[in-house]
Amino acid sequence: MGNISLKGKSFLKLLDFTSEEIRYLLDLSKELKQKKKNHIAHDELKGKNIVLLFEKTSTRTRCAFEVAGYDLGMGVTYLDPNSSQMGHKESIEDTAKVLGRMYDGIEYRGFDQAIVEDLAKYSGVPVWNGLTTEFHPTQMLADILTVEENFGNAKGLKLVFMGDARNNVANSLMVISSKLGINFVACGPKENMPDEKLVETCKKIANENGSTITLSDNVEESTKDADVIYTDIWVSMGEDKSIWEKRIKLLSPYQVNKNVMANAKSNAIFLHCLPSFHDLNTTVARDIYEKYGLKEMEVTDEVFTSKQSKVFDEAENRLHTIKAVMYATLK
Ligand code: CP
Ligand code: NVA
Prior knowledge:
With 331 residues, the protein is α/β, with parallel strands linked by helices. The protein folds into two domains: 14-135 and 317-330, Aspartate/ornithine carbamoyltransferase (Rossmann fold, 3-Layer(aba) Sandwich); 139-316, Rossmann fold. It contains 13 helices and nine strands. The strands form two sheets. A five-stranded parallel β-sheet has the order 7-6-5-8-9. β3 (105-109), α4 and β4 form a beta-alpha-beta unit. α1 packs across α5 and α6 (168-180) packs parallel to α7. The longest helix has 20 residues, at 311-330. The protein is globular, with a radius of gyration of 19 Å. It starts with 18 loop residues before the first helix and ends with a helix. The structure holds phosphoric acid mono(formamide)ester and norvaline. Norvaline (NVA) binds at residues 131, 167-169, 232-233, 236-237, 273.
């Protein structure tokens, strides 16, 4: 890891990083996690300031960036979906130029990948992608850290994404799997598969790293002997509510339930980026229940609350991995 430096670089998508750079970020995350657990101060970025620009809502990503920023000794400004001029009254380019004059780094969560790429192009400071329509790259560092905490090494494992396999989380999981030599399976209906070009790119990278990328609509075949079963909500932020009915019909066969987990390896783990619709304790879930009669969606409550479920370790790891990304690009 000695000669890797990511200083000044943006973290926009995992395709921009080599396998060694991703490895470096994961190792740095482990080191920073240890420091945090042992109460060893690591406020080495004192005097720097960052801004968190959110055009969509968030719990984990916002809190992880904010706490990581404070732990590193930085000043943090949070701009919520309604309180900046960006988009309505000021272009992305102008916003980027202004923020780049005041801040040392910018986090962006929102819509098109092109927006976060433009923020990086025009701001002149590192920009970190906190989720776009196409990708969610900081999430995958936390996911793989969690996988490594459970299995030691992720290389050669079988990771299956169930459900809406064309969304940001599935795309980014496919990319990181290809980079780290993980066998990735997108299991869902044919009409919800990742973009063909991205699949081709990932297949090539995976091949170089000794792993495979498979697309399948067969649940039994896909989940057989899996090490990691992963799912995400069926309708992502920014999608129209009217799509729920269609998605429920299309994706219900891909729900993660006890049969799916029983078909995987006995020591398999369950991951979910969260938030999740596994019970009726949210307004959206209750609304869906009233309209379509579903009590749980992409994952059953039984699996979500089982010992195999590592979702809260995964959520905590957002903090340590996001901290590593900021530290590596700013220090
Ligand atoms: N997983 C994730 O990105 O969660 P938030 O939407 O709460 O940030
Ligand atoms: N696919 C989800 C991920 C949320 C963390 C969304 O974009 O809403």
